[in-house]
Description:
By secondary structure, the protein is an all-alpha fold. Helices cover about 75% and strands about 0% of the residues. The chain is globular and about 65 Å long.
Amino acid sequence: MNNKYLYYSTCFLILVFPSLCNLVRHSGSGTLALLALMGFSVLLFGKNRPSLSKHEKWVMWAFAAYFGAYLISFIVNGLLLSISDPRLKYLDHEFRFLFVFPIFLLLRHLKVPSGIFWHSITIGAIVAGGYAFCSHFLLPGEARIKGGYHSIAFGDLSLAMAFMSIASIDWYRNKHHAYLILPLAAFFSGLTASVMSGTRGAWIAAPVLLCVLFVYSGKYFKVGTRLLMVGAFCIVAVAAYHIPATNIAQRLDPIRAELEAYAQGQRHPTATSERIEGWKAALDIFLLNPIVGAGPGTFKPLVKAMVEEGTHHELAAIYSKPHSSYLSIMSDCGLLGLGALLALFGMPLWLAIKQIKTSRKVWDLGFAMVLLVVAFAQFAHTEAIFSRNVNISFYVIMVAALMAITANEKAAE
């Protein structure tokens, strides 16, 4: 095994991954598989394999538990004949979370530098913004920019990269003050891409991410200055709302009317009504199967049965999953699954906060992890975020990269 070629190949994949996964279909899954295979080669044939700290092991167990929750629910409900059509494909998405371990070992073993990670995020956000801008003017018929997959995935990932890129400010400033334009350009480019995608679920996450940045910027600015910056951001957001070209008002204004109509008992086929009906159906399925859920892949057939029985409106059966990761896993895997999902977010977040408190050298990497996890935890409220391979690939690779690079930076102290 030639470590030189392995090192350069890995660095290249990490560098281009955020840009490609958001724009090129299947590139996220391909990169995830390649990095995992290279990680297994290190695990099997590499010398001086790095060890894991106690806290890193907890993160790995959290990722394994997510797959384990689905596996247990699949087996239990399969034995109870609750799953009418048991297929291993129902475990495909969840199995990919196990790749965090070999990818972490690969990046830890090769000592991939933090600069590769920061470049990957900033380039990814800038490329997303450039793509959205060009698509808007070159393809005027596109009301919402979709990227390689779907407007929701494009908007979510672009926003996550926009905020994560701010954590790279110190790294670029230490290289040269002129380079500060890169994270700032990445921030506004990522925001532009998210706005042009029309992804309301991503916009809901922005205020929470802004609160994280408020804390992060405490190392640079006093409270008064930070409050002025928040105020300026709000003014820009309000101004963007009133500019027709942003399409923000066209996406947000119908929500109030749809909610009022729904409250009055009207069930029109709107995004709001479809989501609420799906959420209600998922909650009822969970209440009937609170421990291990009804099983993977059972949501749509169960909801169709509920509609036929007259207990739920037909709008609930439009989607194969409810538009919420929390309700989706509750209906699939019950409390067992909900605990696993919370651990999937909570353990990396806990590790990042611990690193922020104990080492100034990895402060920025820790905040990048916080921004990543908080973004995905917020997206999960209104979208079954891990039902898309591109989101799984992004979360797994980014968590593994941040953990490995942080461990290498601390080891070099």
